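Annual report, structural modelling task.

Input specification for the KG4 complex:
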Amino acid sequence: MIVLGIESSCDETGVGVIDLAADGTLTVLADKVASSMQQHARFGGVVPEIASRAHLEEMGPVMRAALAHAGVERPDAVAATVGPGLAGALLVGASAAKAYAAAWGVPFYGVNHLGGHVAVANLEGDRLPHSVALLVSGGHTQLLEVEAVGKPMRELGSTLDDAAGEAYDKVSRLLGLGYPGGPVIDRLAARGDRNAIAFPRALTKKSDSRHDFSFSGLKTAVARYVEAAEREGRVISVEDVCASFQEAVCDVLTMKAVRACQDVDAQVLLLGGGVAANSRLRELALQRCQAAGIELRVPSFPLCTDNGVMIAAVAAQLIHEGASPSALTVGTDPGLEVEIPLLQG
Ligand code: KG4
Ligand code: ZN
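The model returned the following structure:
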């Protein structure tokens, strides 16, 4: 059975095609993504209206490229992200998916985006057991307890303000390093001293929330540091600022992720989202997981960032378990809860 997935919750237009075998084995046939990231660069972050328009322009071409690559004319099911995400962006992908499903006469599945980030784990390696997922991107920063792919998840914690990737992007902007900030800060940090500046680790006191994050104070601390240096005429080392900022982010993320695994007795920590590409995050997560006897799973980079395959993977798992399709009247929900893997309507 051929399952096609459409992703459009943020700035990536993705179409993925998966072959679901009778025994539940999944084979990726196509994974095409167009990103509007460069169109947002001069604004320092994703502009929802620009993202929506870009989805509209890219949907047809990306769909045709994915079908051609997979050698498929008509899939047996069409899935799309219905939330969480940007309202207008979600509407474009979900509307397209419903239109394709209606035209082809095949069922439609309205899928949770965050479940997609988790589902890619089953495309590489063993089936994901009971685990904790740390999802970190420009849009999300969450710790989720996962029973299995396609099952309702439980949110253990999330950011109270900026997402981890957003913090990278904002710090990059104030250092004049451009957008997106993650890759350039990661590169410069490698040449800096991560202990040079003691930036704050928010919500790490005993009395603080165990699983929530906050990054806006850290961003402000970096701004204050740079402003003070300018005022006093000191030359700063951008490399040291990057390394120290990155250490503060990754220290808290990995400490809380391992703690969450221990709290819910999970043997596996799964990383997802664009920030999962970060070299220090991976290094520190590996060190701390090994010390705690936890297995770390990091999907390959194209599967960490937003794509259509992740949506097809959730739908394929649900179809394999006999889930009913969504009604074509089902809406999109920018604030869709993690407890809902499939919106049936
Ligand atoms: O998942 P993604 O491609 O898109 C969404 O946010 O939906 O993630 C993009 C985010 C950006 O904030 C970018 O700065 C960050 O991921 N990022 C990184 C790295 N590569 C990308 N952050 C830290 N280190 C990296 N190497
Ligand atoms: Zn995402």
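The longest helix spans residues 238-264.
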